Amino acid sequence: MVCAASMKCSNRHIGLYDTLAALIFLYVCNCCLNKLDGCSIHLFILSVASGQVLSFRLSDIGEGIMEVTVKEWYVKEGDRVSQFDSICEVQSDKASVTITSRYDGVIRKLYYDVDAIAHVGSPLVDIETDKALEGAPEEDVVETPAISHEQSHQEIEGQKTQATPAVRRLAMENNIKLSEVVGTGKDGRILKEDIISFLAKQTGAILPYEVQKTPSPTEDTPPKEKTPIMAPPAIPRPVFTWKDRTEPLNGFQKAMVKTMTAALKIPHFGYCDEVDLTQLVQLRSELKDLAESRGVKLSYMPFFIKAASLGLLQFPILNASVDEGCQNITFKASHNIGLAMDTPQGLLVPNVKSVQALSVFDIAVELNRLQALGSAGQLGTADLTGGTFTLSNIGSIGGTYAKPVILPPEVAIGALGKIQVLPRFNSCDKVMKAYIMNVSWSADHRIIDGATMSRFSNLWRSYLENPASMVLDLK
User: Which residue numbers delimit the Peripheral subunit-binding (PSBD) domain (predicted)?
Assistant: First the structure.
């Protein structure tokens, strides 16, 4: 009896799975040899060309982060992935980051469950590559850079079409070929706005003003389409188990512990006032429909942020930072104004960059983007870092006054109460209906005195009580 043809051993590299298969095959044939006498047995093993199984490690994602929480797996064992496909989403105490593949191959092992802690340098997945890498040792370990949503594609080599992983994912979800999209970024890089514009041309959707084209007289104007109002984060219902439960702090909770502990070292100075928003309420009502026709929801917050930026031009010390030894003050060139945001992940403070160069409408567009990312848990590191001044809109939930805590290394923060309809006397001593909002300021009393905070608040209030006055100081 012949078990197989003659065995041929070549110098070709045999992968891990080929080796295991060969050993099993030899074992079976050896059993046949022991049981069969006088049989001419020739072993034949065909080594299938296969790649290496590489341990895909979590590399340093910056900001001194040493561990992350695995929030979601986009793949499972046995799935085939291509280069730049999303593998998983991890969350640090700074932001959520998407890890993408550097190879074409098959996922062989996932090292962590969802919500498990992964440390920098530890393996995330094992990937069997489609072919062996030239010059790579048998047990080569390759690290993949953790690619965040805002990472520039200039850091990724070997791709003809320039686009970030987030843009590629957006294109894939909408069945758009990147080769068909004209990039408007640097060196032809495809931006998120390019994907949205391309999709709008196919579907006839209304674009924000800055990417919307003016229709010619022969073109039909698309119907007005309102942006859906975003639902507030769902409040988790308590689960009564009648037992104490201990669970570790997540990444964002750890960040809050670190930030608030540092803030405790700052001597806070508090200042409160009320603002009559009657004229602003009327102005917003006139502009609201126009903004919605451009695809943007216009709230009061863009006006509050722009008024703060105009005030910071007159009081730059409020847009500064002080070193740890309180020996030097750094006056920030840009007004990166943060907005404390209640998200499903907890309190996050993304910021609008360079507010001094933006219009109220530009700020509204950026706020819409940040709020959408916050609700989806996809705020990137660039969105959450670099803030120079912060506003907290507690009034969206409730309350009139607060005692806001400064976010180091910033030196000032404001908390905005809810807008109330209250009776007030006008200049003719007649009672009138007024829209009143209370504001609470906190400042670093080591470098900011009460008079400075009071003067800034008065200027900020004057812009909001007479919003037309902002036009005089707009750049």
Answer: 162-199
Q: Catalytic annotation on 187?
A: no
Rounded to an integer, what is the distance from CA 382 to the centroid of its chain? 8
pLDDT at site 200: 63
Q: Does the pLDDT at position 212 exceed 50?
A: no
Q: In whole angstroms, give the CA distance from residue 315 to residue 458.
A: 12
Q: How far apart are CA 129 and CA 39, in angstroms?
A: 40
Angle (CA) 340-267-446 rounded to 5° is 105
| Whole-number Å distance between alpha carbons of 106 and 34 | 38
What are the tens digits of pLDDT across the range 351-395? Answer: 999 999 999 999 999 999 999 998 888 888 889 889 999 999 998
Examine residue 409 and say whether the peptide bond preceding it is cis (omega within 30 degrees of 0): yes
Complete DSSP assignment for 423-466: EEE-TTS-EEEEEEEEEEEEEETTT--HHHHHHHHHHHHHHHHS
Q: Residue 281: exposed, middle, or buried by beta-carbon count in 10 A (0-12, 13-18, 19+)?
A: middle
Is 445 annotated in the active site?
A: yes
Can you tell me the distance from the alpha carbon of 409 to that of 360, in angstroms, rounded to the nearest whole number? Answer: 26
Domains located in the chain, CATH noted:
1-50 (no CATH), 51-148 (2.40.50.100), 156-205 (4.10.320.10), 267-473 (3.30.559.10)
Which pLDDT does position 202 carry in this prediction?
A: 59
Measured distance CA(352)–CA(95) in Å, rounded:
16
User: Taking the model in full, what pTM does it have?
Assistant: 0.60
Instruction: Give the active site residue among 104, 273, 276, 445.
Output: 445
The whole-angstrom separation of Cα 140 and Cα 54 is 6
Residue 51: predicted pLDDT: 62
